[in-house]
Amino acid sequence: MNELLLVTILVLFHCTLGQQDFLKSSNELSALFDLRSSLGIRSTDWPIKYNPCKKWRGIQCRNGRVTGINISGFKRTRVGRLNPSFSVESLANCTFLETFNASGFSLPGSIPDLFGHQLGFLMVLDLRSTSVTGPIPASLGNLTRLNALYLGSNDLAGSLPVALGQLMQLSVLDLSRNSFTGPVPSEFGLLRNLSSLDLSSNYFSGSIPSSFGSISRLKFLNLSDNSLMGSVPVELGNLSSLVELNLSMNALSGLLPAEFMRMRNLEVLVLRDNRLEGRLPDGLFSSLAKLRVLELRENKFAGALPVALWSLQNLQVLDVSANNFTADLSNFSLKGHASGTTVPHQRSLEDCRLFYAERGLTFDNFGNPESRQQPLPSPVPKERKRWIYILVGVLGGVGFITILVLVIVVVLRKFSNTITNERGSADVGRVPDGDSPPLPKDPTSVSSPRESFTYEQLLGLTSEFSERNLIKHGHSGDLYQSFLEGGIPIVVKRINLHSLKHYSYMIELEFLSKYSHARFVPLLGHCLEKENQKLLVYKYMPNRDLAESLYRVTKFEDDGLQSLDWITRLKIATGAAEGLSYLHHECNPPLVHRDVQASSILLDDKFEVRLGSLSGVRVQEGDMHQSVLTRFMRKSQSSVSDPGTSGSSPATCAHDVYCFGKVLLELVTGKLGISKSDDATTREWLEHTLAQISIHDRELVAKIVDPIYDRR
Questions:
Q1: Which residues are catalytic?
Q2: Which residue has the higher pLDDT, 485 or 113?
Q3: Which of 4, 569, 628, 632 has its CA 20 to 30 A from that of 488?
Q4: Total-model pTM
């Protein structure tokens, strides 16, 4: 019966389309219809009445055979959303398939072996952000024609199969943002055609393989945010085609190889947050003439900064803070590249001066005495219109305090004067609509690309939500710690809808599914089985939140309380600002966090910020951008009336900024609880403290600094 149906469909295609190309293989036609059913592809994308080669979106054919399938960005049918899975067994019949792109389409489950065993013509496999789990099958090493393999932003784990070193035609390999462990295979050095290799944000250990120096065509290498140790291989200096090198956030030690001066095409060098030491090689920066970005902060480098560093014509970003560099700054002034020029679309120095003047403050151009009595210089030639950000780590704690308290006084006083201002500045334009992801139709149509856990799974992982696993009682749900298979730590938030009478969990789930940013807490999955109990699964943050980490009782009685150093506090302030900036200025319409306080600023093992408490995110009040998500968020906002919760906070960016200012004060003064309180006592303390802040009187500022540093 099925064969007769397929023959009938083929005849209808032939009669309707005449000489137009159509599928010649009944096996491939059957495979596409099976795929349409198993993945829940909508009729608007793959209409059943039409020839797949002509009318099905994302299908490419050549000589009547299917050569490409692209379902990136597709939405499932309602039935398909109920039980999404990686059901693509029918692809085995598409033997001429060259490209398969499912990026952004939820495919929870492991990668099938059929890709490596039965799709020998495959050249591009793109499974980014598809929620695939488990290890990479070694059978992918059979794809000798594979040119690009994208597996980033998933939940893949385990060690990498050495068989991937057999993919001699591979040009792009992206395995970033997963949970891979073990060493980086030295066999990757055999991939001589590789131009881009991204292994960032995993748990790789061991050393960087010296064989990487043999990948002569490599242009982009990113090994950041892992646990790599040992020295930087001198063989990397052989990568003469390299344009970007990022080895940051590891545990690398030793000297920076002098062989790096052979990488004459290098434009970006990021080595921050390691344990590298010694002097920078002589002649290094004379050779790296194309360098645009140099980040060396948080290492143990010493000695004088090379003079050639200041002569790099293309340098835009320079960060050498938190090292042991020495330099004579007695004649230092902001001249040349940083003399009155600003980044495009930023406010001018004159705008800054007027801004401070309106608030009773004096702006001194960051210490440049020449600008105090003289007008700003006339526009410089185009080739000199560049701003070099120099964060030299010789400023020490006092410099950090001065910068931070300046931000605080501007933020808090601006809020008190302009609380009705919805976005702070009318000069800040919106991001084009095209930058915003598709929006959901209703609270039941959450298109989360994360894994769907069963209730029984999470019940077992948390020992039936025992007190032993309980971390704390949050305002939107109780938090429990547990571990996935492979030892990956997680946090399970249990939301009881008997006591939480709104759909805030749906907003958080949809928000984290649609908006991706490194400063948001990573959502790993969810469970929506129970009618009155919803579960969200997050990546565990080892340093908990700022409220707990600012001061922490040590294991040794003699040490008493251990507090965060100034560099870490600045790192946290910057990270939180980046997350809020994304919500306010890069989302369209602008989104408001509404619960900015120390307890909502989560910290990973390296004190990188991940904003939490996202169940209160709303569209900014008064924004005229109407969309389904906008209406849903506003409807949810109006349904939340519980006093004392984040739901009662104003949905304005200005309020977020005000609360962020209180977080900054908490960082500087060490006074716990300021950011979560808004009672009369707190407001009185704020008024008193703000009176102590002056950018011209450091002794006055010192009175509000965390007193724990008086004992150091």
A1: 595
A2: 113
A3: 569
A4: 0.53
